[in-house]
């Protein structure tokens, strides 16, 4: 799958889009921006998806007549990630904003419960609690060219997570909330590969 390329200005100077989109809003005092007409950068993002647990089977051994067995199990996750980056010109806001979001699992199966308090279970959904957002004055270079990205990205991909030896068994001790959080961290680390302005800082696991 091709990785989408966001649109950045080309003005002959090096641009670091990651540094631009991660500019903090903490130094943006309300008194310095409230009522001031200027250009603003607005970033929003989200993810959602579904999954089901599958088995990886070990082939039978014809010489010893061993029947096929499950080598390991895993969750096959279908993920959709999106970002929207907009420059609003000649606009006023009362203050900058940074809105975080939480990634939650709605699982089913023998070893799961709502919101993933006991792990992935056998199948389910995952989604963010709301839109992540960054709102701050747009960043420009000395020539007045925007260094912030703009554009919309949406990508869908599959990733395997929650691997455990043998067939799935909730009594095995593998399908735990702690292990689920590690799996979700691995998932989140992949999201900027598909939508380059996705900001993991905004996402709580």
Main attributes of the structure:
3 helices; 8-stranded mixed beta sheet; 205 residues; disordered N terminus; mainly beta; single chain; 13% helix
Description of the molecule:
Strands 1, 2, 3, 4, 5, 6, 7 and 8 form an 8-stranded mixed sheet that branches. The chain is mostly beta strands. 13% of the residues lie in helices and 41% in strands. It starts with 16 loop residues before the first helix and ends with a strand. It is elongated, with a radius of gyration of 22 Å. The relative contact order is 0.27. It has 3 helices and 8 strands; from the N terminus they run ααβββββββαβ. It has helices at residues 17-21, 30-33, 177-194, and strands spanning 38-58, 69-91, 97-99, 101-108, 123-128, 132-137, 151-165, 203-204. The chain has one domain (35-204).
Assess the beta-strand content as a share of residues: 35-45%
The helix/strand series, from N terminus to C terminus, equals HHEEEEEEEHE
Gross morphology is elongated
Number of helices: 3
Structural class: mainly beta
Number of domains: 1
Q: Roughly how many Å apart are the termini?
A: 26 Å
Mean pLDDT: 80
How many runs of DSSP E, i.e. beta strands?
A: 8
* Poorly predicted spans: 1-15
Q: Work out the radius of gyration.
A: 22 Å
- Main sheet, how many strands, which sense, barrel? 8 strands, mixed
Helical content stands at 10-25%
């Amino acid at each position: 799958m091709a990785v989408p390329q966001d649109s950045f200005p080309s003005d002959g100077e090096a641009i670091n889009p990651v540094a631009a989109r991660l500019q903090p809003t903490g130094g943006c005092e309300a008194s310095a921006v409230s009522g001031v007409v200027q250009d603003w950068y607005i970033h929003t993002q989200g993810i959602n998806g579904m999954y089901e647990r599958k088995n990886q089977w070990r082939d039978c051994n014809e010489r010893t007549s061993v029947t096929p067995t499950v080598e390991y199990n895993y969750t096959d996750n279908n993920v959709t990630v999106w970002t929207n980056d907009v420059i609003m010109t000649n606009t006023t806001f009362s203050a900058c904003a940074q809105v975080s979001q939480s990634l939650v699992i709605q699982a089913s199966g023998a070893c799961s419960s709502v919101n993933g308090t006991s792990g992935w279970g056998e199948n389910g959904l995952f989604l963010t609690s709301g839109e992540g957002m960054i709102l701050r004055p747009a960043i420009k270079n000395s020539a007045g060219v925007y260094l912030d990205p703009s554009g919309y990205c949406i990508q869908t991909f599959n990733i395997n997570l929650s691997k455990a030896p043998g067939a799935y068994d909730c009594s095995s001790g593998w399908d735990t909330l702690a292990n689920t959080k590690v799996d979700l961290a691995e998932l989140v680390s992949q999201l900027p590969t598909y939508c380059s302005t996705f900001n993991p800082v905004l996402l709580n696991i």
